């Protein structure tokens, strides 16, 4: 089964180093290994061959697709950033909080660090939208 045929929730969660590469692809679009290396190697102190091997592994896992129609292969992320974050969060919430969104949110807001006023305003706005959409579906 290719990555195009694989349901998104069956794609493996990216490792921290794979996530750095995906973030580069999301922000800059399809890129060659050299382009990715130039963008992330400076602060990561990674060699070109390390990035190449990592991207080959990501291709085998179905996290990226490779266009090898030209001499320099171009890689692109299979899923978007939002979708990847959602899948990773769903997995984390299931494993750690037994699927409870409220327990996750209470832990994040109450224990780890205080939320900034603008974050609280965004959360409040989201809650209002969720309540309104819930009321609309109940009608």
TrEMBL record:
Keyword field? DNA-binding, Transcription, Transcription regulation
Example GO biological process term? Answer: negative regulation of DNA-templated transcription
Example GO molecular function: DNA binding
InterPro entries found in the cross-reference section = BlaI_family, WH-like_DNA-bd_sf, WH_DNA-bd_sf
Q: Which family does it belong to?
A: Belongs to the BlaI transcriptional regulatory family.
Q: What is this protein called?
A: Transcriptional regulator
């Amino acid at each position: 089964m290719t990555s195009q045929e694989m349901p998104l929730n069956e794609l493996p969660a990216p490792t921290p180093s794979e996530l750095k590469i995906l973030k580069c692809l999301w922000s800059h679009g399809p890129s060659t290994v050299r382009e990715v290396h130039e963008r992330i190697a400076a602060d990561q102190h990674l060699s070109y061959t390390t990035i190449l091997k990592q991207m080959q592994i990501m291709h085998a896992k179905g996290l990226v697709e490779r266009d090898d129609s030209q001499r320099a292969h171009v890689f692109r992320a299979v899923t978007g950033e939002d979708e990847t974050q959602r899948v990773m969060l769903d997995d984390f919430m299931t494993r750690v909080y037994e699927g409870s969104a409220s327990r996750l949110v209470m832990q994040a807001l109450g224990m780890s660090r205080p939320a900034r006023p603008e974050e609280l305003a965004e959360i409040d706005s989201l809650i209002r939208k969720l309540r309104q959409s819930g009321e609309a579906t109940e009608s």
